[in-house]
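ok trying this again, last paste got cut off
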Amino acid sequence: MGDWVSAIPSYLVAAAVLIVPGLTVVVAGWGWRSPGRLLLAPAVSATIVAVAATLAPVVGLTWNLLPVALVTIVVVAIALLLRRGAGVDAAPNGRRAPLVALLSLAAAAAVSLVSFVRAFGEPENIAQRFDNIVHLNAIGLALKSGSSSPFQIGATSDIGFYPNAWHALTTLGAELTGATVPVAVNGANLAIVSILWPASTMALAGAFFAQRRTAFVVSAALSTGFGAFPALFFNWGVLYPNLVGYAMVPAALAAVVSSLPERGAPAGVRSALLIALLSGGTFLGHPNAFLSLLLFAAAFVVTSLAIAAVIARTRSSVIALVAATAGLAAASAVTLLLFRTGAEHSGWTPWQQTAQSLGEGLFAAPRGYTPTVLVTLLLVVGFITVARMPRLLPVIAPFAVGVLLFVVASGLRIDHPLRQLLTNPWYNDSNRLAALLPLVAIPVATLGALVIVDVALRLAAHRRVRAWVTPVAAIVGILAVFSVALGPNVRIALGQVNEAYAYTDSSLILSSDEEALLGRLADETPPDALIAGSPRTGASLALAFSGREVTQRHIFGSPSDEQLFLNANLRDIESDPAVCRTIDDIGIDYVLDFGRQDVIDPAGAAAYDGIQDLAPSPHLVLVDSQGPNARLFRIEGC
């Protein structure tokens, strides 16, 4: 654990960036008395960071804290103007609610930090998963270019636009502390799982349950107790952009929940702008996170208005229900159509039968993760409570949508029309939909906990228990609910993360030898060197690890015809003059050869036979090597 001292600066930078801008905006616009509102601060900050990174190159600014500060000032000014007409939030009924919320967040942050530090292993470790190549190199390219805009991040994989919230935050950590890219990545990810994610879940619980202290405690604890999120995204993919986008969804949904009771045009406008702000930030986290938010919000709003119409039985309430249903249905349909993905990316197959997928969805225990008994108990109590009290249906409505999407993706046949209609924007990937379950299961489980606590308090009042019993019972209850972090559901997932982050001789991206050689590149090559190598072996990570430009930054890039020729024929450099001519045309200086270990499919290595398993020659001078397969060649004589 002592080695993690090197990651502290990048963690603190990411933590400060996630707290300060958003907290300033929330206090300016709503005051400081509502803990539920203050818990939106990390999501607001993440939005500001993503927007600032997008706008910075437009106005000629390098990516650093200055664009963040300028965007924050603008948003604060708008918030202050809105506050003049709408006023400040009222304090919650419980006087100690702010303190309880703060302590709960701190406890959840500490638990998550310990859990994920142990899962990552070492601060320099990377996730040995193929998507990590593009994410690490995107940070390396952002540092070289001074830009973390979605267009610059997209350039890493030769596409026009790529969501940038995660990359912008992580690049700040690397730039401001001088940390290596792997250390900055781990520092930022620790800040996301320990601050952004639990704060968002707590904000949603506060919005649903009138900022009750118990709701803050339970939701904070439950944020540490599910394997499907956030742990899954450190093993599957890895899906860092989805990590940020999904972590923001509960906060954005909390803004929607809080907006319904608002009265008056000023307050309504302020709430609408907050929803728009957080929705935009969620989109810049990942577009399918935004789509998830839209569907969850639609389920909540329509259910809430339907209950209001049944109770009020007035024409205006019915009109509101019909208008909202029509509008949200149209918005959802259009978004589902706009976010379609091509067949080459959406061919993920279902996992299981429909009945099994329904069971896994209802208890938020997908992928065969063993359900944690306490979480299951709380969910069951929540289900029963909603069945007995239909007015609470809005709490469970988003969860019903999440379960439906998961069942459709993981339980229906691959060519089922409903599967193609509903889950294509998530690539028909059951993992991405499995990760949505904790986001909307936590409010239901929190409801179950509130019911249990209320029953216990009534029994205590009826039987007139001794004064010391209540605080002791509260302490036992808090320890019990935080014990979910040790439950089998999350423990299995964290074990898989640990395996994904381990350096071994057979690691999918980088072996220990390859990582060591990359660490020496900055001393062995000039800053303007261009290095060729197969991206499928991790050789392209020379960009992330040493800041050296590479011919292919990602597996799914679009190499030129000249590059394709070298990929197949560079080994013939001594016998084929066309090889040297092509090398000169492209400007290649070095070749990084990591053998044939392929990150996805061994058959894919065939396309790179020309730059794998090379032998030293007059034109290929061996500069450095580590172990049997990691070698750096300098090209001479071309």
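PB: full thing came through this time. The mean pLDDT is 94.
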